[in-house]
Prior knowledge:
Blueprint: H1 2-31, H2 40-63, E1 75-79, E2 94-103, E3 113-118, E4 125-128, E5 132-134, E6 151-152, E7 158-159, H3 200-213, H4 220-227, H5 233-248, E8 263-266, E9 272-278, E10 283-288, E11 301-305, E12 309-312, E13 354-357, E14 368-373, E15 378-383, E16 390-393, E17 397-399
Helix pairs in contact: 4-5
Pfam family, one: Myb_DNA-binding
Region (Disordered): 31-60, 137-217, 315-371, 383-403
Protein name: Myb-like domain-containing protein
Amino acid sequence: xxxxxxxxxxxxxxxxxxxxxxxxAAMAYIRGSPQEPRSSEEASEEEAESDxxxxxxxxxxxxxxxxxxxxxxxxxxxxxxxPELRGGTWSREYYAATVVDVxxxxxxxxxxxxxxxxxxxxEDQLVLEDYxxxxxxxxxxxxxxxxxGKRGLANGLRTxxxxxxxxxxxxxKGGRPPKTATATEAAPPPPSDEDAPWTPEEEQxxxxxxxxxxxxxxxxxxxxxxxxxxxxxxxxxxxxxxMLECQRIPDDTPPPGAEQEQKLxxxxxxxxxxxxxxxxxxWLVVKLDENEGEDGAPGEERSxxxxxxxxxxxxxxxxxxxxxxRRRPTAAPGAAPAPAPRKRRPKxxxxxxxxxxxxSADSHGGRSGAIVEKNTAWWRVKLDGDNEATSIRRxxxxxxxxx
Length: 403
């Protein structure tokens, strides 16, 4: 009897596995799968892996944890931000890149972060998931073809391969990209106030507004609104950056055939360096001299802010930057307005002085007495007819009139 029960159990187990295998094969046939029939072991392993992945995804959704949209080595497009720009913005355009690392979010409400490797060889950057999207393959541009279907080249040769696509480095300035007119668009509108050239008075007003806000607290929407010329905040910020470069670094172009290097001195150590490159927002790339120092090795190139260096002329003297004077509003012709009356300081009393409580006081209005003790805001006054002193506010007391 025991052997019969064991044999029946084995038969039921084999029958169940066979039925499951035939059921999956039937579902694959109904779905139109072009794959060849697989063995029961391969099918069971693949179904187990897919079920496990499905269970992980459902569990993550139930727990409210965000699921990463991209995985390792995915081809994506992402927005670019220059790490050397202090307070810079993300670019409007997307650039091709590859995901090299996936970082989980710190909280449930924040998205994933991805370490992006740019196709143009720029430095790897950490980008939020909101600024990353799947890479959309671009259709190749139609090239002129000969009768045999091959593309003709300028040198007379012919080839069937598509032309190589030029890729440039992402812009470090960011901002809104220029709009290009298409064939279906209407004629471009007339130039607005934003495209008008900047006047010296407008540049001086912009410099005054930036000085009022102070470095580090710039609000370009507020500055553009206070400027009152109808220019966008992006145009105001870009023009001020160009003004900053022109003001800090004198553009002395040497004559042809004469090489002139701009020398400067580091204020902290007094070390002499040579200007190599001017960057955005007052950053410079300098090459140190051949002396040893805490600033760096001899001949080393490093970045430094313009505020920490002093430019030198050909004779080695300091170049003092000229700062524009603050524009003062001109008064209208006519009589000058009368100055506002100065607020009189109340008379100070001493202990023993006779005072009177104002009628507008909360209590004891109109009564008189003598000062017993003086405090910061409340004074002790012994009113006439009372045995004990009373606390009264200093601003409610006035000198008593002598009969």
